[in-house]
Design a protein that fits this description.
Elements lengths: L10 E2 L1 H8 L3 H9 L10 E2 H16 L3
Antiparallel strand pairs: 1-2
Length: 64
Protein backbone atom coordinates (compact mmCIF):
# COMPACT_ATOMS: atom_id res chain seq x y z
CA UNK A 1 0.00 0.00 0.00
CA UNK A 2 1.35 3.40 -0.92
CA UNK A 3 1.03 6.37 1.34
CA UNK A 4 -0.31 9.51 -0.27
CA UNK A 5 0.83 12.63 1.54
CA UNK A 6 -1.64 14.84 -0.34
CA UNK A 7 -4.36 16.15 1.92
CA UNK A 8 -7.70 17.63 1.02
CA UNK A 9 -8.45 21.14 2.25
CA UNK A 10 -10.33 21.17 5.54
CA UNK A 11 -13.04 23.50 4.23
CA UNK A 12 -13.87 24.00 0.59
CA UNK A 13 -16.46 25.50 -1.72
CA UNK A 14 -18.86 23.63 -3.96
CA UNK A 15 -16.54 24.30 -6.90
CA UNK A 16 -13.53 22.98 -4.97
CA UNK A 17 -15.39 19.87 -3.88
CA UNK A 18 -16.62 19.30 -7.43
CA UNK A 19 -13.03 19.36 -8.67
CA UNK A 20 -11.95 17.00 -5.89
CA UNK A 21 -14.74 14.51 -6.66
CA UNK A 22 -14.60 14.83 -10.44
CA UNK A 23 -18.17 16.06 -10.79
CA UNK A 24 -19.72 19.37 -11.78
CA UNK A 25 -20.49 22.16 -9.31
CA UNK A 26 -24.16 21.68 -10.25
CA UNK A 27 -23.96 18.07 -9.05
CA UNK A 28 -22.48 19.20 -5.73
CA UNK A 29 -25.22 21.83 -5.39
CA UNK A 30 -27.93 19.27 -6.15
CA UNK A 31 -26.54 16.75 -3.65
CA UNK A 32 -26.17 19.46 -1.01
CA UNK A 33 -29.76 20.63 -1.57
CA UNK A 34 -31.01 17.04 -1.16
CA UNK A 35 -29.05 16.68 2.08
CA UNK A 36 -26.66 14.07 0.68
CA UNK A 37 -23.68 16.37 1.38
CA UNK A 38 -23.27 18.34 4.60
CA UNK A 39 -22.82 22.11 4.19
CA UNK A 40 -22.69 25.05 6.56
CA UNK A 41 -23.13 28.60 5.27
CA UNK A 42 -21.99 27.64 1.77
CA UNK A 43 -18.83 25.95 3.00
CA UNK A 44 -18.21 22.22 2.92
CA UNK A 45 -16.01 20.19 5.23
CA UNK A 46 -14.02 18.32 2.59
CA UNK A 47 -13.48 15.12 4.59
CA UNK A 48 -17.10 14.89 5.73
CA UNK A 49 -18.34 15.67 2.23
CA UNK A 50 -16.16 13.00 0.62
CA UNK A 51 -17.33 10.43 3.16
CA UNK A 52 -20.96 11.45 2.55
CA UNK A 53 -20.47 11.24 -1.22
CA UNK A 54 -18.99 7.75 -0.96
CA UNK A 55 -21.94 6.73 1.21
CA UNK A 56 -24.30 8.19 -1.37
CA UNK A 57 -22.61 6.21 -4.16
CA UNK A 58 -22.82 3.02 -2.09
CA UNK A 59 -26.53 3.57 -1.54
CA UNK A 60 -27.08 4.15 -5.25
CA UNK A 61 -25.10 1.00 -6.10
CA UNK A 62 -27.20 -0.98 -3.62
CA UNK A 63 -30.36 0.24 -5.27
CA UNK A 64 -31.49 2.38 -2.38
Amino acid sequence: MTTDTTTAPAVTTAAGLAELLGVTPATVARLTARGALPATAGQLDAEAAVRAYVGHLRSCAAGA
